[in-house]
Amino acid sequence: MSIMSNAKRALAIAAAAATLLSMAACGSSNAASGKSDSSGAASSGKIEVVASINQWGSVAEDLGGSNVEVTNIMTKTNVEAHDYEPTSQDVAKFGTAKVAVVNGADYDPWATKAAQPTKATLVTAAETAGIKEGDNPHVWFSAKVRSNTADAITAAYQKADPSHKDDYAKLNKEWHAKEDQLESKIKETSAKTEGLPYAATESVAWYLADDLKMTDATPKGYAQASANESEPTPADIKDFQDTLKAGFIKMFVFNSQEANSTTDQITGAAKDANVPIVELAEQMPKQYTNLLDWMSALVDQFAAAVK
Questions:
Q1: Nearest residue to 186 (alpha-carbon basis) of 215, 153, 210
Q2: How far from chain centre, in Å, is Cα 50?
Q3: What's the mean per-residue pLDDT of the chain?
Q4: How big is the chain by its Cα radius of gyration, in Å?
Q5: Contact, 105 vs 126, CB < 8 A?
Q6: Residues with Cβ < 8 Å from 264, sequence gap 6 or more?
Q7: Does 174 have pLDDT greater than 70?
Q8: Does the first or last residue of the chain, that is N or C, have fewer Cβ atoms within 10 Å of its Cβ?
Q9: What residue segments make up the domains of the chain, in order of their start?
């Protein structure tokens, strides 16, 4: 998690811009034809941006400032993005946007489907780090993906609104300064968490735990069932409970957005075994206005959970 120099960052944004231009060249004739910006954002001269989930929308807002108007499709923590069914109004928002930011890695396929036939420049967070369908899709927890996605968004803004190119470069630099602070905090915390065995009801925070150099010790049978979105067997559940009782697991990570009777049993076993619990959700909770503050708070939770 090295801190990128200004020169390297400029090259990263330029590379992202080249990628976006290449993608645009391969786009459909539909996407290149006519004007469909009839919104207030268009009439005010702002870039109209649509984001599938609120955490990426917050990054888009930070990087665009007063020159953009961002609409988030999903904002609630009680809805799972993969299963979300967009309304006709949601789809229409992609049609009028100049920039669309989606997660990718099959996390929000409905958003990618809605954005692809439009004229919007599409930024897919997972693709900025080569993460594909079948890989862990919770990529906003990854420092590398956050940084790469920020540069891709900046490149998209500079393409859509070249007259404010310097403004977007300045906002990008300011955003990266905050990301660098977060990464420094992660590095400092990893001195306490390195090698620490943890288990999780889902792999939602895997990238953050990996940045913290922790060891995923979730029992294999349960982990495979979770990854396949299937029900763990009674033997898998018992194995998880027994592993927690044995005292080997030093931290338990619980995705409250996917709570059910099975996770209740395992969380209960963690409590009975006095295993420190970190509870989190997939969508950015409403008390946070940007992704970096949310990630920083989670790092604090991980640090506090270390005995």
A1: 210
A2: 15
A3: 90
A4: 20
A5: yes
A6: none
A7: yes
A8: C
A9: 6-184, 194-305
Determine the Cα–Cα distance for residues 276 and 268; give it in Å rounded to an integer: 12
For 180-196, the pLDDT digits (tens) are 999 999 999 999 999 99
Q: Which fold has domain 194-305?
A: Rossmann fold (3.40.50)
What letter represents residue 39's amino acid?
S
- The residue length of the chain stands at 307
The DSSP letter of residue 17 is H
Q: What are phi and psi of 252, to 5 degrees?
A: -120, 125
CB-CB contact of 95 with 36 (8 Å): yes
Contact 204, 105 (CB under 8 A): no
Q: Do the first three CATH levels of 6-184 and 194-305 match, i.e. the same topology?
A: yes
Instruction: Say if CB 210 and CB 189 are below 8 A apart.
Output: no
Q: Which residues, at least 6 apart from 221, have a Cβ–Cβ distance to it below 8 Å?
A: 232, 233, 235, 236, 239
Candidates 3.30.930.10, 3.40.50.720, 1.10.490.10, 3.40.50.1980; CATH matching 6-184 = 3.40.50.1980
What pLDDT band is residue 267 in, cutting at 50, 70 and 90? very high
pLDDT at 15: 61
Q: Nearest Cα to 58, choosing from 250, 284, 215?
A: 284
- What per-residue confidence (pLDDT) applies to 248? 95
Instruction: Give ∠ CA 186-191-195 in degrees, rounded to 5.
Output: 100
Task: Answer for the pair 166, 279: CB distance below 8 angstroms, yes or no.
Answer: no
Mean pLDDT of 212-231: 96
49-70 burial: b if 16+ Cβ within 10 Å, else e: bbbbbbbbbbbbbbbbeebbbb
Sheet holding 121-124, edge to edge: 68-74, 47-53, 99-102, 121-124
The amino acid at residue 241 is Q
Section 105-122 average pLDDT: 97
